[in-house]
Design goal:
The protein is mainly α and 86 residues long. The chain contains 6 helices and no strands. Helices cover 67% and strands 0% of the residues. The chain starts with a helix and ends in a 10-residue tail after the last helix.
Length: 86
Amino acid sequence: MYNNIILKCKELKMNIKEAIEFIVSIEKLRCKQDLDVWCGDMGKQKLYLYVKCLAPEHWERIRTPKNSVRVYYQQMLTGYKLYNSI
């Protein structure tokens, strides 16, 4: 199932923000704790690999893609100082 989703997403040419929005939506992540549970033993590396797969062009184009991922998920999920409820 996820392989089909990833193939479709690659066709859409997502950027990092769109990839994180997609992951947060399909995995039903709402808060920091949800993300921690979802990442499990892999830690945030699981999220980074998923985003890199969904948005490879954007990932390669920027110097610090992990920092971008971090900023976006912290804005989207409650439990972080950067959370933006808008």
